[in-house]
Amino acid sequence: FFMGNFIDKTFTVIADILLKVLPASKQEKQAFSYYRAGMAAQSDGKYAEALENYYEALQVEEDPYDRSYTLYNIGLIYGNIGNNSQALEYYHQALELNSNLPQALNNIAVIYHSSGLNTLTMINEEIDDIQQAEYRALATEFFDKAGEYWRQALKLAPDNYPGARNWLKVSGRLFEDN
Predict the structure, then answer these.
(1) Are 108 and 142 in the same domain?
(2) What does the record list as GO biological process (predicted)?
(3) Which has the least CB within 10 A, 9, 56, 75, 99?
(4) d(Cα 125, Cα 127) in Å, to the nearest integer?
(5) 81 in the same domain as 105
(6) Residue that finishes a domain, picked among 57, 87, 117
(7) Is residue 1 located within the same domain as residue 80?
(8) Does 130 fall in a domain?
(9) Which domain holds residue 1?
(10) Same-domain pairing of 115 and 74
(11) pLDDT-based confidence at 20, cuts 50/70/90?
(12) Residue 68 sits in the same domain as residue 144
């Protein structure tokens, strides 16, 4: 706990110094200030406040690279509160602006993988064979999508996501280029 708190405080101090000394426009400084406030609220679990700040940052931030991280963080919040469709939407928006976000690709894959697992839990003896086959097919679609996104993430960050690499290998979804 102490180390995390120390790091948060250090980031805040450094961010304040950067805001004062960097040659940035008032609009850029305002966007960064909103982004920083959003990150602080998010790390405290104050998701509504974080979202407000991130949305404000998006109103004034023009740089696509910076916008991508704001969109990614919004996706993280929606994922944390279980709103996976919103999370996917924001991860995809972030990737449209910055295709070099393996963490967004990983999180998309995690959502699809989880959806596949959840679909498999719906299979039981009380439903007929046709329904069971439909659930298995849907789960396979989710797993294939997860594999697609994990392969992309591993192309960008080959040493990250060893669990994903192992799942791809075990499930037969790891191809030569990974």
Answers:
(1) yes
(2) photosynthesis
(3) 9
(4) 6
(5) no
(6) 87
(7) yes
(8) yes
(9) 1-87
(10) no
(11) low
(12) no
Quick count: other Cβ atoms within 10 Å of Cβ 71? 26
pLDDT band at 3 (very low <50, low <70, confident <90, very high): very low
Within 10 angstroms of residue 39's Cβ, the number of other Cβ atoms is 20
- For the four alpha carbons of 152, 171, 165 and 77, in that order, the dihedral sign comes to positive
The two structure tokens encoding residue 29: 């400084």
For the chain, the domain total comes to 2
- Residues 76, 111: one domain? no
Q: Provide the whole-model pTM.
A: 0.85
Q: What angle do CA 124, 130, 136 make, to 5 degrees?
A: 60
Tokens of 141: 């679609």
DSSP 151: H
Residues 6+ apart with CB under 8 A from 105: 91, 95, 149, 150, 152, 153, 156
Measured CA to CA, the distance from residue 79 to residue 138 in angstroms comes to 21
Task: Name the one residue in this structure whose structure tokens are 């959502």.
Answer: 111
Q: In sequence order, which residues have a C-beta less than 8 Å from that of residue 80 and are 6 or more positions away?
A: 47
28 to 16, 58, 90: CA distances (angstroms)? 14, 11, 22
Residue 121 φ then ψ, to 5°: -70, -15
Label residue 158 left, alpha or beta by phi (over 0 means left) and psi (-120 to 50 means alpha). Answer: alpha
Neighbours of 126 (CB within 10 A): 6
